[in-house]
Amino acid sequence: MKYVSTRGKSPAVGLGSALAAGLAPDGGLYMPAGRPATGPAEFADLESLPQIARRMLQPYFDGDPLADSLADICAEALDLPLPLRSSGDEHTWLLELFHGPTAAFKDFAARFLAAAMRRLPDAAATRRTVLVATSGDTGAAVAAAFHQRPGFDVVILYPDGKVSPRQAHQLGCFGDNVTTLRVAGSFDDCQNMVKAALSDPALSATLGLTSANSISLGRLLPQMSYYAAASLRHWRASGKKLGFVVPTGNLGNALACLMARNAGLPIGEIILANNANCVLSDYFAGQDYALRSVLPTLANAMDVGAPSNFERLRWLYPKQSRLRKTLAAGWVSDSEIKATIRTWNSRHGQVLCPHTATAACLLERRRLSGDDADYALVATAHPAKFESIVQPLVSAPVGMPPALARLLQRPASAQPFQADKELFKDWLLERAGAERSQA
Ligand SMILES: *Cc1c(COP(=O)(O)O)cnc(C)c1O
């Protein structure tokens, strides 16, 4: 499999190079050049997520030196619980993606990326700096995946004051090879700083820069596998396709779902759930695609005004009329998020995080308009990460997963930083110089 840039002005590369580069040299995002087809029959005896992922991803690794390591990568990174929990309502499930070390779905992809990158042919000889702009959860997942891994440094940028207190603690609690910057700006500012550094070829080459953002191909690929596993489980049990309602910010998670459906998995309708940052929902409602400034909401990991993976979606569907028929979308206000957390808890006895609540609210609207197909709400984070929002809305205390509790017991610190691309590049250079003179 070769990987091509969405902007079409860079040469096609192999998987390893696409993973290591993060962004294509022309500023575009890497996409697989081929469209492998893998229907349910090809997964016949496969049950576990690592097994299913290995089968699903085989064509994407084909021809690359990493192909020999695919089984090991899947076993190491994806051996996490993946409950498809009944909601109590006959046609609705929760796909819980929050059982990894940092209690959000980003753990799957971050762990996969780390497992793949440390097996790149040049890994022993190359020191890499992983840059990650985060709206809350990516940074911690990436830090957890690369923490104390020889040959890797991680630099996290997050918008100061715009993540939950527990998220901020998680982002700053790793230390060692992880440096955390709290940026006086928005998530889009952080993302632009990372993009500016990555698209400076000299800087990027000198420092071995790479990205672990949702622009990274290494995140997109593994995310396809849990949609494969969940839809196959449902297909085997019921003979029906499973639709997904996906809480959406940068569109990485939902795009992986679409790619799994395009590859032939038994996936029904895919519905994007936005918060008040509704650029995608407006687009699918027929408006022009227009970037917005970011509104802070209760579902902060989805506070994105310029969803970076939209470029990939457009590349897949150059014709706007077809693209608009491919996915459905809607958006949910903060007051609806709160109301949904409350009513879902009293009706189903389950506590949703604010992100998952956007999906639940949207599905409720679909049900009222007569849609009785089978759907899974994609539960993207554990509610305990957002207890200051969730706890007052539900009756019983929100239990904390042990892995999250362990992280919150560590001391945390983050360095203040201005939202300035040039300052960031200078800082990276100085830091590398200081490391070199120490060595
Ligand atoms: C990152 C994140 C999202 C948004 O996912 P995208 O892939 O950026 O669309 C939704 N919910 C939670 C909890 C997240 O951390």
Indicate the topology.
Blueprint: E1 3-5, H1 15-21, E2 30-32, H2 49-61, H3 70-77, E3 84-86, E4 92-96, H4 106-117, E5 128-133, H5 138-146, E6 152-159, H6 165-172, E7 178-184, H7 187-198, H8 201-207, E8 209-211, H9 217-238, E9 242-247, H10 252-262, E10 267-274, H11 279-284, H12 310-316, H13 320-326, E11 328-331, H14 334-348, H15 354-368, E12 375-379, H16 387-390, H17 402-409, E13 415-418, H18 421-438
Parallel strand pairs: 4-12, 5-6, 5-8, 6-7, 7-13, 9-10, 9-12, 10-11
Antiparallel strand pairs: 1-2, 3-4
Helix pairs in contact: 2-3, 2-9, 3-4, 4-5, 4-9, 7-18, 9-10, 14-15
The structure holds pyridoxal-5'-phosphate.
Pyridoxal-5'-phosphate is lined by residues 104, 106, 136-137, 214, 247-254, 301-302, 355, 380-381.
Highlighted features:
439 residues, 6-stranded mixed β-sheet, 5-stranded parallel β-sheet, 18 helices, 43% helix, binds pyridoxal-5'-phosphate
In terms of structural class, how would the helical and strand content be classed?
alpha/beta
- What does the oligomeric state look like here? single chain
> Quick check: average pLDDT?
93
- The backbone outline, from C-alpha atoms, is globular
Q: Biggest sheet, open or closed, and with what strands and sense?
A: 6 strands, mixed
What can you tell me about this protein's structure?
- The protein is α/β, with parallel strands linked by helices.
- It is 43% helix and 15% strand.
- It has helices at 15-21, 49-61, 70-77, 106-117, 138-146, 165-172, 187-198, 201-207, 217-238, 252-262, 279-284, 310-316, 320-326, 334-348, 354-368, 387-390, 402-409, 421-438, and strands spanning 3-5, 30-32, 84-86, 92-96, 128-133, 152-159, 178-184, 209-211, 242-247, 267-274, 328-331, 375-379, 415-418.
- A six-stranded mixed beta sheet has the order 3-4-12-9-10-11. Strands 8-5-6-7-13 form a five-stranded parallel beta sheet, with helices on both faces. A two-stranded antiparallel sheet has the order 1-2.
- Strand 5, helix 5 and strand 6 (152-159) form a beta-alpha-beta unit.
- It is globular and about 65 Å long.
- Bound molecules: pyridoxal-5'-phosphate.
- Pyridoxal-5'-phosphate binds at residues 104, 106, 136-137, 214, 247-254, 301-302, 355, 380-381.
